[in-house]
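Hello forum,

I keep getting stuck at the same step: I have a sequence, I want structure tokens, and every attempt I make locally crashes halfway through. Rather than fight my setup again tonight, could one of you with a working pipeline run this one for me? It's a single chain of 336 residues.
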Amino acid sequence: MNWIPPERILLTGGHEIGGLQAFAEALQDGFGELGYPAEIIQPRALFSHMRDLRSLRVLKILSTTGMFAGPIARRALCMVHASPLVYDQGWLTTGVLLACYKMANMCSAQLVSVSDYLAVHMRAFYGVNVDAVVRNPVKPIYLQPYFDSGAPRDYITYVGRLVAYKNVDRIVPPIVDLLNESPELKACVIGDGPERSRLQELAGGHPRFEFRGQPSDQDVKQQLRRTKVFVSSHVTEGFGITYVEALSQGCVVAMPGSGGGVEIALDRVGESVQLLPISLDSHEVLAVLRRALTIQPSPMPIECYRARNVAQAYLEVDRRFFPQPATQAQAARAHN
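Reply #2:
Ran it on my machine without issues. Output:
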């Protein structure tokens, strides 16, 4: 059996700005660099592409509700981006996703997670076997050569959706305490969501606590270059591409001591990676943030997260699991 490369790639995106849509767009660019045409469609449009779903000439990479097509798709990689969360997705969606994961284990689709943490989590808690781990790509803007502009690093910054399960409300009070201790320090929350008004109330109108909504990628990058400490409070983060982005721009990253983000830079834990307690106790978080402000980090190389390299990793997974018949006659029968 020889591997026959796919003729093209079909990717499912997401509805939100950033997140899964950015993942799909980055992979589309990466496959394009390798010479493979790639198309992004919304999950709801999948079943209008039935011929592609069943074709062995097309490699499918299915995310979110695109997973529902996994059991009937051939040559498909089903993505595990995060652990199913009942309090975020509800019982019905969580149950259906778990059923799809289980069915993928029983049919021709393969499961790919974005971190070893997720692979272990899915196996230990849900009895779902993950076939491969491929970490997410970063946006090209973060792969540009780093230079020190000389601007002061006087911010503590959060970037992400403002939703309840990310626990941002647990870190706002200690950040306010830190601002009161450090008159030269400022705080910035980048992102939007249903928790925004509540978080603004917790910040108490502090004059050095900013909420910026959803600026451009260039503005986020510039903010990270003004940031001393990048902070996150998501204790079950599946991977955390924002950690990679922050480390690439010379930030100290303060993250919970759980989730897939811990894998990103194990050699930097205790230095440019500072671990928060998963309890997110306010006094302990404040102590970690104080310590993080004393670190002098250096930018982390992130070439392995280039979209082209990540796309190549998906092709290697395809090569491993979808070997094709060796002769043209056999290949023609397999494609039909």
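The chain has eleven helices and twelve strands. If your local run keeps crashing, start a new thread with the error log.
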